[in-house]
Write a structure and sequence with these properties.
Blueprint (H helix, E strand, L loop, with lengths): L1 H13 L15 E8 L5 E10 L2 E6 L2 E5 L1 E5 L2 E5 L6 E7 L2 E8 L4 E9 L17 E7 L8 E10 L2 E8 L2 E2 L3 E6 L2 E7 L4 E8 L3 E8 L3 E9 L24 E3 L5 E3 L9 E7 L4 H17 L4 E9 L4 H15 L5 E6 L4 H7 L11 E5 L5 E6 L8 H19 L1
């Protein structure tokens, strides 16, 4: 009986499911492994570290996301990632928490658990059969013509650990981290807005896998090694339709003022129009870059204006999300509410009928000092793309500098 009692106590201490009746009131300081339940057989893990009762860091490869909006109520914890309109609501346990990752406006909830003391995102059981470092030519939804799209996988592998991302014509899947377990490729990321999981069976030169976004979407993908593969030029995908030579719009700011490019502040200046949304991770990456660039160049006849397309259901909530983004990223340029209730790209194109389409959030329009559109860049190559991000920032600065010198 004594042995049985000791075993029962041990099981209670190590389980992420059990909980004492007098549970903890705060998250313990230390490292946790969180697991989002994609479906009955698939789970998407990520790792975070609690620094104090009201601050934690989420880790995705080289990325660290600081979260400082953590509140407690009775035996529950509420964790709101920065910028994005989503949150975790969970019941505290002796070994972590159990609850849901929630997006109210999209009516989505994904079950989530967190276990204290665990630090490995994936547990690899076997030695890797190959090294996936390098470039991969990928096709998502290969058998569905209407949904098919190309991507470029960029990976680095160190023993079992893999980092990298997939680039597409509309942006990248940000910082991915995972393992090669035998012939099984596993990568995930959680940034507070998106929960992504990529799994695949790999040979030396091919992949066949599945991409999961939360528990609401999945699609197959295939890939093959191709060091020379490149995606179409992001500067040639979106353009002005025939009969248009300028971009025009009139949208409100948070103070109720209607702003347009004919306003005095934009006259005789180089202007960037950023088509974006506060819910969009690639837009977050671009906004960080643009906010810093604007601070360094706003005294040079240079302006930026953001046009936010928000899926949140009310105008009040949409403006609250915009102001939260601006405050968090120290954005000094105006961000206008172009649309709320949907972030559909067809609806966005209707608001900007001079464009052939809105293919991606973000999309950036470069306008010279006399109001002529000089370039439209689709998507954004964020810091997770490594050399591509460095290349983009240099090209961006050279192009804007050229416009300013005209």
């Amino acid at each position: 009986m004594r042995v049985i009692s000791l075993l029962s106590l041990l099981i209670l201490l190590v389980s992420c499911k059990e909980e004492k009746q007098q549970g903890p009131k705060n998250l313990k300081v230390g490292t946790y492994k969180a697991t989002l339940k994609v479906n009955d057989s698939v789970e998407m893990p990520f790792v975070f570290e609690v620094l104090s009762s009201n601050k934690l860091l989420i880790f995705n490869a080289e990325e660290q996301i600081e979260v400082d909006e953590i509140t407690y109520r009775n035996d529950s914890v509420f964790i709101k990632p920065p910028v994005f309109d989503s949150y975790i609501a969970a019941k505290l346990t002796e070994t972590g928490f159990e609850g849901n990752y929630i997006k109210d406006d999209l009516n989505r909830a994904v079950p989530i658990t967190a276990c204290f003391g665990a630090s490995k995102r994936f547990e690899a059981q076997s030695k890797p059969i190959t090294n996936v470092s390098g470039n991969w030519e990928a096709t998502f939804s290969p058998d569905a013509e209407a949904d098919r799209y190309m991507a470029k996988g960029i990976f680095k592998q160190d023993h079992q650990k893999i980092t990298g991302t997939f680039r597409t014509t509309t942006g990248d899947y940000r910082y991915l981290e995972g393992v090669m377990d035998g012939n099984q490729f596993k990568l995930s990321t959680f940034d507070g807005s998106h929960a992504f999981l990529f799994t695949a069976t790999v040979t030396d030169s091919t992949m066949q896998g599945m991409f999961y976004s939360g528990n609401h979407f999945k699609e197959p993908f295939v890939a093959k090694r191709n060091e020379s593969f490149e995606l179409p030029d992001a500067n040639n995908l979106t353009f002005l339709k025939e009969g248009y030579n300028k971009v025009t719009f009139a949208f409100p700011d948070a103070n109720g003022n209607t702003i347009s490019l004919s306003d005095e502040r934009f006259k005789n200046k180089v202007v960037l129009v950023q088509i974006m949304g506060t819910w969009c991770p690639n837009c977050l990456d671009e906004s960080k870059f643009l906010a810093k660039y604007y601070k360094n160049n706003k005294d040079k006849d240079f302006e930026i204006v953001g046009l936010a397309f928000e899926y949140t259901k009310t105008e009040e909530k949409a403006f609250a999300n915009i102001e939260r983004l601006k405050d968090r990223l120290n954005i000094d340029y105006p961000v206008l509410l172009a649309q709320y209730g949907t972030a559909g790209k067809v609806s966005a194109q209707e608001k900007l009928p001079m464009l052939n389409h809105v293919l991606s959030y973000p999309t950036t329009i470069f306008i010279d000092k006399i109001g002529t559109v000089r370039k439209i860049h689709t998507g954004f190559n964020g810091p997770a793309t490594g050399d591509k991000y460095t290349e983009f920032t240099k090209e961006f600065d050279q192009f804007v500098t050229g416009l300013l010198e005209e």
